[in-house]
Amino acid sequence: MSSTSVARAPRGEAQLSLAARRRVRGVAGLLIGVGGFLFVWTLLSELIFGEFTLPPPLEIGRLMWEIVRSGQFAHHFVPTILRLAYGFGLALLIGFPVGYLMGTSRWWRAFFHDMVMVAGSIPGITYAVLALVLFGISILGPVLTVGLISMPYVAINVAEGLDSVDRRLVQMSDAFGRARPAIVRNVLVPSVAPFAFAGVRLSFALAWKVEQLTEVFGSSSGVGFMIRHEFEDFSIPGMLAWVLLFVVFMILLERFVLTKLERYLFRWRLEDRA
Amino acid sequence: MSAATTATAARSTSGSVGRLLRSDAVARVASYAFLLVVWQLLAMWKERFPTPAATFGFLWIEVTGGSHGGIVRGEFLEHFAATLPRFALGIAISMVLGILSGVLIGGSKLAEALLKDTLLMLVALPAIIWAFLTQMWLGMGDTAVVITTFLSAFPFVAVNVVQGIQAVPRDLRRMSGVFHVSGLRRLRHMLIPAVMGYLFAGFRFAVIIGWNAVLLAEWFSASEGVGWRSRYWYDANRYKGFVAWVILFVGFIVLLDRLVLVRLQRRAFRWRDAQRSETERTVGEIDVGVTGA
């Protein structure tokens, strides 16, 4: 602890310029990376596959802009994002009690063990088609799919988070005669919540992919539906435009929104981590 | 024998029965019973969803090659026989190219700057896109399926190899430079042991993600195989056939993962995990698995 405070002490221009330099380097790295991506793509498109098979980036970029400008982007992204949000809400709602049981009782840990372990290797197509058979074309399919996929991550993290709860705080609350519900609400939930959220963030990358797959199979709106629509129109550029918009959007969402939110939730822990 | 044990069990203190009920084995049995009950309730709620009994009955006919009524007979082995070579070939290609590009990106600063983001983009692309694209590019047939498998799995191998190479401690690299350790010895004693664990992790990702990809690709562009057969029953509105195949293909990957891949990976990471606690290991993403999408 003392060594870190010493290391942090000289907070002067030298450090500022270091941070600035690091930021410049980060932006430059990103530009080079994106440049590399576009370069590889153009190369493949022009030299190997031809424009019909793999349309050049410029054409896809134009289409992407068209999708955003015409309002189709908002029209199909909003339902997709909402379904994801509902699904994560569901995962938290179920994952909390399941994680609590797993974290506090050996029997319940054994009860959920196989389900949680196996859930991770089930192919996404299973969820997509079963949802279609069970619910038809409905919002329930994607929402339940997202919930089922991220629930194990939330539960495991909650079970793990319970271990990190400050026992002395619980003992003190007991000593001062706080009721059990009050302890759960004021001590357990706040210290476990960040772990639950970390579970959501861990499962985010798979959850949106499978959600989109359920939309491909059975939905009448959303990004997956549009991808299917373009496929049935035999439009390679249209499909690529939708997919890339979606992937870029999701990467940005994960990097900037979710990571920031997680840091915000975890901020009370940063002190003992630093 | 059983009567005697029941008698002793009854005579013994209620504690032992309680202990039995509280044991892990009973908890596991209870969880499977719970799942079956949920399934049965789902089937009673939605008429078109098959009951467990109907599904397992169908599964039995399909596996033993009995008659589904009329001239339609159960088919099982021929579809796995069609799928597995495509799957294996796709995974093999993705391993070879994944290792090559991983070594390139992990070993060269320039290649990393230029290609790392491309790789992350490929990781983020869902398998369905490759299934659709290969169908449009190549039409129906084996090639589309193999290429979909390869394209979906390959980025995960590459990313893991890159991580493995970058995980070689810098001090070790510098020291071997200072002491003029030959390239071959460096490869043998420094690089390969460090990368091996990551490579196995990548292999496991590739297998799980590739399995989903092969099923999706067969769903859209094959005329035999596991994915095709599931679709066949789905299209025929015989959902118990579809659910029976879900049991087959989920069972296949779960057994492969739990019995082979997880153990391989644990072995490969043994040297690293020895110092980490057991709980840490079960929490990491590694053990929960990677739903292929």
Q: What brief labels describe this structure?
A:
heterodimer, A: 274 residues, mainly alpha, MetI-like fold, 2 domains, 12 helices, globular, B: 293 residues, 15 helices, 82% helix, disordered N terminus
Textual characterization of the structure:
The complex is a heterodimer of chains A (274) and B (293). Chain A is mostly helical and 274 residues long. Chain A has 2 domains: 12-54; 57-273, MetI-like fold. Chain A contains 12 helices and no strands. Chain A has helices spanning 2-8, 13-49, 57-69, 72-104, 106-119, 124-135, 140-164, 167-175, 180-217, 223-232, 236-265, 270-273. The model of chain A is unreliable at 1-11 (pLDDT under 50). Chain B has 293 residues and is mainly α. The radius of gyration of chain B is 24 Å and the shape is globular. Chain B has 2 domains: 14-49; 77-288, MetI-like (MetI-like fold, Orthogonal Bundle), CATH 1.10.3720. The termini of chain B are far apart. Helices cover 82% and strands 0% of the residues of chain B. Classes of the chains: A mainly alpha (274), B mainly alpha (293). At the A-B interface, helix 2, helix 5, helix 6, helix 7 and helix 9 of A face helix 3, helix 6, helix 7, helix 10 and helix 11 of B.
